[in-house]
Amino acid sequence: MTTDVVQLNARRAEAIEQSGWGRSFRFVQPRNAAFWTFVAMVGAGVVFWTESLVTEAGNARFGPAIGMAAVLFAVYGGLFWWFTQRIDRYSSIPARLMVLAFMWGGFAATWVMAVHGNNALREIYAKSLGQDFVQNWGPALAAPFTEELSKGVGLLLLIALAPRLINTAYDGFILGAMLGLGFQIVEDIHYAINAATSDFGAHALYSAIKIVALRSAVGFTAHILYSSILCAGLVYLLGRPQQPRRVGLGLLLITIPVVLHMIWDAGAGFASVHVLLTPVSQVATFIVALVIVVRVFKLTVPAERDQMRDVLAPEVATGVLRADELEAVVGDRKARKRFRKDPTTRAERRARKNVIEATFDLAHAIADASGRDTAQVTFARAELARVRAS
Amino acid sequence: MADSSAAGDDWRPDDTFVPVDRRWAGLDRDTIKPSLIVIGALLLLTVVLPGIASSLEFDNPIVEGDRMHVRGATFMPPEGWGIVSGLRDGESSSGLYVQDVVLERGSVSVEVESGSFDGTPEALLEEVRDTNDAVSDSLNVVGDPVAINAVDGTVGSIARFAGPGTGGIIAAFVFDDRGITLVATGPEEDLDRDIAEDVAQMLVTMQPAKELG
Would the CB atoms of B131 and A201 count as touching at under 8 Å? Predict the structure, then answer.
């Protein structure tokens, strides 16, 4: 083995070790205070939510509407879960940790924390600033603070539960999306319940369907987006072994989703100033939010791609992988597309698409094996060769 | 505690292993601070803020001539009732009014709710009996509903309900396609004649309203 390959293997081992890629995650950690905190708060949230759901869904009039909403939101949640798994294609976060993030967002952040804070803040505003003020501005001055705080502290617990697995702002970005997804889904089911029971329950199914459609259409630019940006910011603020601390950037990325959330929730307040301000502000927020989240994605993902490069570089040196294949895998969507579309025939293009997927599989096999040449790694290399030749 | 990997050279401790010099009371010292931060946030949202809210008083009592506006209707509560939520007629800067108004006097609360409804007041009363938490949950309607006339001639439906230590009144009106319900609840001993008269005033002064939205 040449010196170059030896050095590349050393960098690979370092990348795997530092990123935590391939490490397993065990949730039950009796010596971990975060474990007990998590269990207590998520457990309490599940109990509160179940009590509320059983009360409403048990009523024969509302049960079908709520059940339908829950199923539709579960499908919606499944789609976003799939999307998040697709973009977490580098040093992937273990599924168990993603589930924990979802559960914190869905049960602890909502039912144990945010709902009480929201009610209290709105009561404070009502008593000190009047009913008209709280009707117009209460939502914008309560929920953005309590809900983003509730979701953000969930990341602190997750870092304490898996310190070696959450290393970069991108990890925070992905877990933040899961925290937000859990919050969004459970909150949306609650909105569907409110809709079904509104108007004295006379139009339960229709009202619930309407809410499902509305919340699904704008859901991606709400909690999922807010907490993905916020949690990336939190990692920058805290710093991690693989992520140098950047206080200014961290505070900025924490503030942005709170402001977006405030503007989104200020619909009634804007309407009290001018009726057109509400739709204009919400469309603008939708667009700005999308632009920002893409920007944060592009800001945070390079660290992951660099780790991927370090893991796969020895494969290029030994001829298992071609240089252009490596560049496609560590590149952005445009680089992958260029690589896929380069050949002239459809069969070759399909083969290139499979080469990209097989290369990701190889990277994961190498990381899972901590860089050793295991049977799984040998198999992954063989698969790569097979799809390249097909 | 540790990975039980067969190959000894590859063994490494997993996340559950805590070196003895990092333990405090058996717990990993590094995990205590983040947990305390989370618990601090929890206390802020569930104890401190609600405590501040409770320590403040609603200083917004009804004065003579006030009309409360719930979407689709207005009504005139007697002087002295406190507004927990909802707006007076004309008070909304946006011209929009919520579907729910809550008033209180001592331990008695009155919740007035509006929503789309195109049936009779009796049918609306049945809907509320079935779906309202305060009414249907172990509380029983006493006697048959009776008619009540608002000053504009609209006929509503009213019934009493009672439960262990609590009781109240439930009433319903329908204006065009808008149903209005009023549920007054409180401890049985506080539902005296004065309260009954106050609630009766709210009901007989109920009338439809036009607003934006």
Answer: yes
Pair B100, B180: CB distance under 8 Å: no
Q: Cβ–Cβ contacts within 10 Å for residue A70, how many?
A: 20
C-alpha to C-alpha distance for A98 and B128, rounded to whole angstroms: 42
Q: Cα separation of B147 and B157, whole Å?
A: 5
Query: What's the per-residue H, E or C state across A334-366?
Result: HHHHHHHHCCCCHHHHHHHHHHHHHHHHHHHHH
State the nearest Cα–Cα gap between A254 and chain B, in angstroms: 16
- Checking if the pLDDT of A267 tops 70, the result is yes
Q: How far is CA A295 from CA A220, A228, A371, in A?
A: 16, 12, 32
Prediction ipTM score: 0.91
Q: What is the mean pLDDT of residues B19-48?
A: 95
For the stretch B119-150, pLDDT in tens is: 888 888 888 777 665 555 555 777 788 888 88
**Global pTM?**
0.90
pLDDT at B1: 43
Angstroms from B54 CA to nearest CA on chain A = 8
Residues of chain B with Cβ-Cβ distance to A201 below 8 Å are: 127, 130-131
Contact A116 B124 (CB under 8 A): no
